[in-house]
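Training component of the fellowship. As part of building independent skills, the fellow (R.M.) carried out the full modelling exercise for a liganded target. The chosen ligand was S-adenosylmethionine. The inputs are recorded below so that the supervisory panel can assess the work.
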Amino acid sequence: RVKTKWAATSPKLSATDLALQNHDVMYNMQLGELWPSVRVGLLTEQKYGALVNNFSCDDTVMYLQSLGCQDFIASSLHMEGSKAADSVIPPYSESLQFDQPIEGTYTDLTRASISPNVKCFVFPKGDISRFKPARPDSCGYLSYYLMDAASVLPVLALNVQKGQSVLDLCAAPGGKTLALLQTQAIRFLWANDWSGSRMSRLQRTLKSCLPSELCSEDNLCITSLDGRKWQEVGENGTFDKVLVDVPCTTDRHSLVEEDNNIFSRSRTKEKQSLPLCQTQLLLSALQAVRVGGEVMYSTCTLSQLQNQCVVEQAMSLAKEELGISAEVVDLQPFTALFQDTFYFAPDMNVGVMVLPHLTANFGPIYFCKLRRLS
Ligand code: SAM
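Fellow's submitted model of the complex:
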Protein backbone atom coordinates (compact mmCIF):
# COMPACT_ATOMS: atom_id res chain seq x y z
CA ARG A 1 0.00 0.00 0.00
CA VAL A 2 1.36 3.41 -0.95
CA LYS A 3 1.01 6.02 1.74
CA THR A 4 -0.16 9.37 0.38
CA LYS A 5 2.34 12.09 1.06
CA TRP A 6 0.02 15.02 1.54
CA ALA A 7 2.46 17.76 2.31
CA ALA A 8 4.83 16.89 -0.52
CA THR A 9 2.44 15.93 -3.30
CA SER A 10 -0.70 18.06 -2.93
CA PRO A 11 -0.52 21.19 -5.05
CA LYS A 12 0.09 24.38 -3.08
CA LEU A 13 -2.94 26.60 -3.30
CA SER A 14 -2.37 30.28 -3.89
CA ALA A 15 -3.88 32.86 -1.53
CA THR A 16 -6.49 33.78 -4.16
CA ASP A 17 -7.45 30.08 -4.48
CA LEU A 18 -7.79 29.83 -0.71
CA ALA A 19 -9.95 32.96 -0.72
CA LEU A 20 -12.26 31.47 -3.36
CA GLN A 21 -12.48 28.21 -1.39
CA ASN A 22 -13.41 30.16 1.73
CA HIS A 23 -15.97 32.32 -0.08
CA ASP A 24 -17.59 29.28 -1.73
CA VAL A 25 -18.11 27.53 1.59
CA MET A 26 -19.09 30.53 3.70
CA TYR A 27 -21.19 32.51 1.26
CA ASN A 28 -22.97 29.55 -0.25
CA MET A 29 -24.29 28.94 3.27
CA GLN A 30 -24.96 32.59 3.94
CA LEU A 31 -26.41 33.78 0.62
CA GLY A 32 -27.85 30.52 -0.75
CA GLU A 33 -29.20 30.94 -4.27
CA LEU A 34 -27.83 34.49 -4.51
CA TRP A 35 -24.22 33.29 -4.20
CA PRO A 36 -23.59 32.14 -7.82
CA SER A 37 -24.46 35.56 -9.22
CA VAL A 38 -22.54 37.43 -6.49
CA ARG A 39 -19.58 35.10 -7.18
CA VAL A 40 -19.55 36.00 -10.87
CA GLY A 41 -19.70 39.67 -9.95
CA LEU A 42 -16.78 39.33 -7.53
CA LEU A 43 -14.66 37.56 -10.14
CA THR A 44 -15.41 40.18 -12.80
CA GLU A 45 -13.93 43.64 -13.05
CA GLN A 46 -15.32 46.02 -10.49
CA LYS A 47 -17.22 49.14 -11.48
CA TYR A 48 -15.98 52.52 -10.27
CA GLY A 49 -17.59 55.80 -9.46
CA ALA A 50 -16.01 59.22 -9.97
CA LEU A 51 -16.35 61.28 -6.80
CA VAL A 52 -16.41 64.90 -7.96
CA ASN A 53 -13.85 67.16 -6.29
CA ASN A 54 -15.80 70.34 -5.56
CA PHE A 55 -12.53 72.23 -5.12
CA SER A 56 -11.38 71.66 -8.68
CA CYS A 57 -11.43 74.65 -11.06
CA ASP A 58 -12.68 72.52 -13.96
CA ASP A 59 -16.30 71.94 -14.88
CA THR A 60 -16.04 68.29 -13.87
CA VAL A 61 -19.77 67.72 -13.86
CA MET A 62 -20.05 68.77 -17.52
CA TYR A 63 -17.07 66.60 -18.46
CA LEU A 64 -18.48 63.52 -16.73
CA GLN A 65 -21.93 64.11 -18.23
CA SER A 66 -20.32 64.28 -21.67
CA LEU A 67 -19.05 60.72 -21.10
CA GLY A 68 -22.64 59.55 -20.66
CA CYS A 69 -22.37 59.21 -16.87
CA GLN A 70 -24.89 60.24 -14.25
CA ASP A 71 -24.51 61.49 -10.71
CA PHE A 72 -26.22 58.55 -8.99
CA ILE A 73 -26.92 60.64 -5.88
CA ALA A 74 -28.68 63.54 -7.60
CA SER A 75 -30.51 61.26 -10.02
CA SER A 76 -31.73 58.95 -7.23
CA LEU A 77 -33.11 61.90 -5.32
CA HIS A 78 -34.90 63.40 -8.32
CA MET A 79 -36.26 60.09 -9.49
CA GLU A 80 -37.79 59.37 -6.11
CA GLY A 81 -39.27 62.85 -6.12
CA SER A 82 -41.14 62.29 -9.35
CA LYS A 83 -42.21 58.77 -8.39
CA ALA A 84 -43.68 59.60 -4.99
CA ALA A 85 -47.09 61.18 -5.39
CA ASP A 86 -47.05 62.77 -1.93
CA SER A 87 -43.64 64.34 -2.32
CA VAL A 88 -42.72 67.95 -2.55
CA ILE A 89 -38.96 67.86 -2.58
CA PRO A 90 -37.84 69.74 0.50
CA PRO A 91 -34.51 71.53 0.27
CA TYR A 92 -31.46 69.97 1.91
CA SER A 93 -31.63 70.70 5.58
CA GLU A 94 -28.50 70.83 7.63
CA SER A 95 -30.37 69.95 10.79
CA LEU A 96 -32.46 67.02 9.60
CA GLN A 97 -31.91 63.45 10.71
CA PHE A 98 -33.62 61.14 8.26
CA ASP A 99 -35.04 58.94 10.96
CA GLN A 100 -36.47 61.80 13.01
CA PRO A 101 -40.14 61.31 13.87
CA ILE A 102 -41.35 64.58 12.36
CA GLU A 103 -43.98 65.16 9.72
CA GLY A 104 -43.47 64.16 6.10
CA THR A 105 -42.83 60.78 4.52
CA TYR A 106 -39.64 58.94 5.36
CA THR A 107 -38.64 59.33 1.73
CA ASP A 108 -38.97 63.12 1.95
CA LEU A 109 -36.97 63.26 5.13
CA THR A 110 -34.28 60.98 3.86
CA ARG A 111 -33.90 62.93 0.65
CA ALA A 112 -33.78 66.19 2.56
CA SER A 113 -31.02 64.93 4.82
CA ILE A 114 -28.59 64.02 2.05
CA SER A 115 -25.82 66.50 1.36
CA PRO A 116 -26.20 68.01 -2.12
CA ASN A 117 -22.46 68.63 -2.21
CA VAL A 118 -21.43 65.01 -2.60
CA LYS A 119 -21.55 64.05 -6.28
CA CYS A 120 -20.54 60.68 -7.61
CA PHE A 121 -20.85 59.78 -11.29
CA VAL A 122 -21.29 56.24 -12.62
CA PHE A 123 -21.79 54.75 -16.06
CA PRO A 124 -25.34 53.44 -16.57
CA LYS A 125 -26.35 49.95 -15.44
CA GLY A 126 -24.81 47.31 -17.67
CA ASP A 127 -22.30 49.79 -19.18
CA ILE A 128 -18.80 48.61 -18.30
CA SER A 129 -16.88 51.63 -19.65
CA ARG A 130 -14.00 52.80 -17.48
CA PHE A 131 -13.02 56.26 -16.30
CA LYS A 132 -9.63 57.64 -17.21
CA PRO A 133 -7.43 58.39 -14.20
CA ALA A 134 -8.01 61.99 -13.12
CA ARG A 135 -5.34 64.54 -14.06
CA PRO A 136 -4.53 67.82 -12.32
CA ASP A 137 -6.70 70.74 -13.52
CA SER A 138 -5.51 74.29 -14.23
CA CYS A 139 -5.31 74.98 -10.47
CA GLY A 140 -3.34 71.79 -9.82
CA TYR A 141 -6.20 69.86 -8.15
CA LEU A 142 -7.57 66.52 -9.30
CA SER A 143 -11.07 66.96 -10.66
CA TYR A 144 -12.37 63.60 -9.41
CA TYR A 145 -11.37 60.60 -7.34
CA LEU A 146 -12.09 57.04 -8.47
CA MET A 147 -13.56 54.70 -5.88
CA ASP A 148 -16.20 52.00 -5.50
CA ALA A 149 -19.38 54.07 -5.77
CA ALA A 150 -20.94 51.96 -3.00
CA SER A 151 -18.24 53.24 -0.62
CA VAL A 152 -19.85 56.66 -0.78
CA LEU A 153 -23.06 55.29 0.78
CA PRO A 154 -21.79 54.94 4.38
CA VAL A 155 -20.55 58.52 4.18
CA LEU A 156 -23.90 59.80 2.90
CA ALA A 157 -25.82 57.76 5.46
CA LEU A 158 -23.70 59.18 8.28
CA ASN A 159 -25.57 62.39 7.54
CA VAL A 160 -22.99 64.92 8.68
CA GLN A 161 -24.56 68.23 9.67
CA LYS A 162 -23.16 71.74 9.39
CA GLY A 163 -20.55 72.48 12.07
CA GLN A 164 -20.13 68.94 13.33
CA SER A 165 -16.93 67.23 14.44
CA VAL A 166 -16.15 63.89 12.83
CA LEU A 167 -13.66 61.12 13.60
CA ASP A 168 -12.60 58.80 10.77
CA LEU A 169 -10.92 56.06 12.80
CA CYS A 170 -9.52 53.86 10.00
CA ALA A 171 -9.17 56.45 7.29
CA ALA A 172 -6.43 55.39 4.85
CA PRO A 173 -6.05 55.50 1.90
CA GLY A 174 -8.70 58.18 2.23
CA GLY A 175 -11.58 57.72 -0.24
CA LYS A 176 -14.23 58.12 2.44
CA THR A 177 -12.33 60.95 4.15
CA LEU A 178 -12.37 62.83 0.86
CA ALA A 179 -16.10 62.14 0.43
CA LEU A 180 -16.73 63.40 3.99
CA LEU A 181 -14.85 66.62 3.20
CA GLN A 182 -16.85 67.12 -0.01
CA THR A 183 -19.95 67.73 2.17
CA GLN A 184 -18.27 71.02 3.18
CA ALA A 185 -20.23 70.78 6.40
CA ILE A 186 -17.57 69.51 8.81
CA ARG A 187 -16.13 71.91 11.38
CA PHE A 188 -13.37 69.54 12.50
CA LEU A 189 -12.22 66.21 11.07
CA TRP A 190 -9.83 63.80 12.77
CA ALA A 191 -8.50 61.24 10.31
CA ASN A 192 -6.60 58.33 11.87
CA ASP A 193 -5.11 55.10 10.57
CA TRP A 194 -2.63 52.77 12.23
CA SER A 195 -0.61 52.32 9.05
CA GLY A 196 1.86 55.13 8.56
CA SER A 197 2.49 54.32 4.90
CA ARG A 198 -1.22 54.25 4.09
CA MET A 199 -1.62 57.54 5.96
CA SER A 200 1.04 59.08 3.70
CA ARG A 201 -1.16 58.06 0.76
CA LEU A 202 -4.13 59.76 2.42
CA GLN A 203 -2.11 62.93 2.89
CA ARG A 204 -1.06 62.91 -0.77
CA THR A 205 -4.70 62.44 -1.83
CA LEU A 206 -5.91 65.31 0.34
CA LYS A 207 -3.10 67.52 -0.91
CA SER A 208 -3.96 66.80 -4.52
CA CYS A 209 -7.65 67.62 -4.02
CA LEU A 210 -8.04 70.25 -1.32
CA PRO A 211 -6.95 73.86 -0.82
CA SER A 212 -4.33 74.09 1.93
CA GLU A 213 -6.51 76.33 4.14
CA LEU A 214 -9.00 73.45 4.46
CA CYS A 215 -6.24 71.28 5.87
CA SER A 216 -5.17 73.66 8.65
CA GLU A 217 -4.67 72.35 12.18
CA ASP A 218 -7.93 73.96 13.24
CA ASN A 219 -9.92 71.92 10.72
CA LEU A 220 -8.03 68.70 10.30
CA CYS A 221 -5.99 66.42 12.52
CA ILE A 222 -4.13 63.48 11.03
CA THR A 223 -2.73 60.72 13.25
CA SER A 224 -1.38 57.21 12.96
CA LEU A 225 -2.59 55.56 16.16
CA ASP A 226 -3.93 52.14 17.05
CA GLY A 227 -7.67 52.81 16.95
CA ARG A 228 -8.30 49.99 19.44
CA LYS A 229 -6.64 52.15 22.10
CA TRP A 230 -8.55 55.33 21.27
CA GLN A 231 -9.59 55.85 24.89
CA GLU A 232 -5.93 56.59 25.69
CA VAL A 233 -6.11 59.67 23.44
CA GLY A 234 -8.51 61.24 25.92
CA GLU A 235 -11.03 62.36 23.29
CA ASN A 236 -13.97 60.33 24.55
CA GLY A 237 -17.60 61.31 24.12
CA THR A 238 -16.64 64.34 22.04
CA PHE A 239 -17.38 63.62 18.37
CA ASP A 240 -20.75 64.19 16.72
CA LYS A 241 -20.11 61.47 14.16
CA VAL A 242 -17.60 58.62 13.90
CA LEU A 243 -16.83 56.53 10.84
CA VAL A 244 -15.16 53.20 11.52
CA ASP A 245 -14.32 51.53 8.22
CA VAL A 246 -12.52 48.52 9.65
CA PRO A 247 -9.87 46.19 8.18
CA CYS A 248 -11.59 43.04 6.87
CA THR A 249 -11.05 40.15 4.46
CA THR A 250 -11.62 42.56 1.51
CA ASP A 251 -13.57 39.88 -0.37
CA ARG A 252 -13.14 41.25 -3.88
CA HIS A 253 -9.48 42.17 -3.57
CA SER A 254 -8.55 38.83 -1.97
CA LEU A 255 -9.83 36.94 -5.05
CA VAL A 256 -7.58 38.72 -7.51
CA GLU A 257 -4.44 39.96 -5.77
CA GLU A 258 -1.74 37.64 -4.42
CA ASP A 259 0.29 40.44 -2.86
CA ASN A 260 -0.55 41.16 0.74
CA ASN A 261 -3.51 38.76 0.56
CA ILE A 262 -5.16 38.13 3.94
CA PHE A 263 -5.84 34.52 2.88
CA SER A 264 -2.12 33.73 2.47
CA ARG A 265 -1.02 31.09 4.99
CA SER A 266 1.38 33.50 6.65
CA ARG A 267 -1.56 35.73 7.64
CA THR A 268 -3.87 33.02 9.03
CA LYS A 269 -3.64 34.28 12.63
CA GLU A 270 -4.30 37.85 11.55
CA LYS A 271 -7.34 36.72 9.55
CA GLN A 272 -8.71 34.77 12.49
CA SER A 273 -8.32 37.72 14.81
CA LEU A 274 -10.17 40.15 12.50
CA PRO A 275 -13.57 39.92 14.24
CA LEU A 276 -11.91 40.69 17.59
CA CYS A 277 -10.01 43.65 16.12
CA GLN A 278 -13.20 44.91 14.42
CA THR A 279 -15.15 44.65 17.68
CA GLN A 280 -12.45 46.57 19.55
CA LEU A 281 -12.43 49.30 16.89
CA LEU A 282 -16.22 49.61 17.03
CA LEU A 283 -16.04 49.81 20.84
CA SER A 284 -13.53 52.64 20.48
CA ALA A 285 -15.87 54.42 18.08
CA LEU A 286 -18.77 54.08 20.54
CA GLN A 287 -16.59 55.61 23.24
CA ALA A 288 -15.40 58.45 21.02
CA VAL A 289 -18.88 59.60 19.95
CA ARG A 290 -20.97 61.86 22.19
CA VAL A 291 -24.30 60.74 23.64
CA GLY A 292 -26.85 61.31 20.86
CA GLY A 293 -24.10 61.14 18.22
CA GLU A 294 -23.80 58.43 15.59
CA VAL A 295 -21.28 55.81 14.53
CA MET A 296 -21.08 54.24 11.08
CA TYR A 297 -19.50 50.78 11.02
CA SER A 298 -18.50 49.59 7.54
CA THR A 299 -16.59 46.79 5.81
CA CYS A 300 -16.04 45.50 2.29
CA THR A 301 -16.79 41.86 3.13
CA LEU A 302 -19.92 39.75 2.86
CA SER A 303 -19.01 37.87 6.04
CA GLN A 304 -21.76 37.85 8.69
CA LEU A 305 -19.06 37.12 11.24
CA GLN A 306 -17.31 40.41 10.43
CA ASN A 307 -20.52 42.37 9.91
CA GLN A 308 -23.70 41.70 11.89
CA CYS A 309 -21.95 39.56 14.55
CA VAL A 310 -19.36 42.26 15.25
CA VAL A 311 -22.06 44.92 15.60
CA GLU A 312 -24.11 42.77 17.98
CA GLN A 313 -21.06 41.76 20.01
CA ALA A 314 -19.79 45.34 20.31
CA MET A 315 -23.23 46.63 21.36
CA SER A 316 -23.48 44.02 24.06
CA LEU A 317 -19.90 44.56 25.33
CA ALA A 318 -20.38 48.33 25.28
CA LYS A 319 -23.40 47.96 27.53
CA GLU A 320 -21.95 45.36 29.90
CA GLU A 321 -18.43 46.68 30.25
CA LEU A 322 -18.62 50.39 29.49
CA GLY A 323 -22.20 51.28 30.40
CA ILE A 324 -22.70 52.63 26.86
CA SER A 325 -25.99 51.78 25.21
CA ALA A 326 -26.63 52.24 21.50
CA GLU A 327 -29.42 51.52 19.05
CA VAL A 328 -29.26 50.43 15.42
CA VAL A 329 -30.63 53.12 13.10
CA ASP A 330 -33.00 51.89 10.39
CA LEU A 331 -31.34 52.53 7.02
CA GLN A 332 -34.14 51.09 4.86
CA PRO A 333 -35.53 54.55 3.92
CA PHE A 334 -31.99 55.50 2.88
CA THR A 335 -31.31 52.44 0.75
CA ALA A 336 -34.74 52.74 -0.90
CA LEU A 337 -33.45 55.89 -2.61
CA PHE A 338 -30.54 54.10 -4.24
CA GLN A 339 -32.02 50.80 -5.30
CA ASP A 340 -31.92 51.74 -8.99
CA THR A 341 -28.12 52.01 -8.80
CA PHE A 342 -27.14 49.28 -6.31
CA TYR A 343 -28.22 45.76 -5.60
CA PHE A 344 -28.97 45.57 -1.86
CA ALA A 345 -29.03 42.26 -0.01
CA PRO A 346 -32.56 41.29 1.02
CA ASP A 347 -33.59 40.36 4.58
CA MET A 348 -30.82 42.05 6.54
CA ASN A 349 -31.68 42.39 10.23
CA VAL A 350 -28.75 44.54 11.29
CA GLY A 351 -27.26 47.01 8.79
CA VAL A 352 -27.40 46.93 5.00
CA MET A 353 -25.21 45.42 2.30
CA VAL A 354 -24.50 46.19 -1.34
CA LEU A 355 -24.04 42.93 -3.25
CA PRO A 356 -21.91 42.74 -6.41
CA HIS A 357 -23.98 42.04 -9.53
CA LEU A 358 -22.89 41.87 -13.16
CA THR A 359 -25.16 44.76 -14.14
CA ALA A 360 -24.09 46.91 -11.16
CA ASN A 361 -20.75 45.55 -10.13
CA PHE A 362 -20.20 47.60 -6.97
CA GLY A 363 -19.41 46.36 -3.49
CA PRO A 364 -19.49 44.31 -1.43
CA ILE A 365 -20.03 47.04 1.12
CA TYR A 366 -21.69 46.46 4.48
CA PHE A 367 -22.68 49.37 6.71
CA CYS A 368 -24.58 49.77 9.92
CA LYS A 369 -25.36 52.99 11.79
CA LEU A 370 -25.52 53.09 15.59
CA ARG A 371 -26.80 55.94 17.72
CA ARG A 372 -25.30 56.29 21.18
CA LEU A 373 -28.03 56.57 23.81
CA SER A 374 -26.03 56.76 27.03
N1 SAM B 1 -11.65 54.20 5.07
C1 SAM B 1 -10.61 53.91 4.13
C2 SAM B 1 -10.97 54.51 2.79
O1 SAM B 1 -12.15 54.76 2.53
O2 SAM B 1 -10.06 54.75 1.98
C3 SAM B 1 -10.33 52.42 4.01
C4 SAM B 1 -10.00 51.78 5.33
S1 SAM B 1 -9.42 50.13 5.15
C5 SAM B 1 -10.88 49.26 4.85
C6 SAM B 1 -9.06 49.69 6.79
C7 SAM B 1 -7.92 50.47 7.39
O3 SAM B 1 -7.82 50.14 8.77
C8 SAM B 1 -6.54 50.16 6.81
O4 SAM B 1 -6.03 51.32 6.21
C9 SAM B 1 -5.70 49.75 8.01
O5 SAM B 1 -4.40 50.29 7.98
C10 SAM B 1 -6.48 50.33 9.17
N2 SAM B 1 -6.29 49.68 10.47
C11 SAM B 1 -6.08 48.38 10.72
N3 SAM B 1 -5.98 48.17 12.05
C12 SAM B 1 -6.15 49.38 12.63
C13 SAM B 1 -6.14 49.83 13.98
N4 SAM B 1 -5.96 48.99 14.98
N5 SAM B 1 -6.34 51.14 14.21
C14 SAM B 1 -6.53 52.01 13.19
N6 SAM B 1 -6.53 51.64 11.90
C15 SAM B 1 -6.35 50.34 11.63
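The panel noted the following from the submitted structure. Residues 151, 170-176, 193-195, 198, 226-228, 245, 247 surround S-adenosylmethionine (CB under 6 Å). Confidence is low (pLDDT under 50) at residues 80-92, 98-103.
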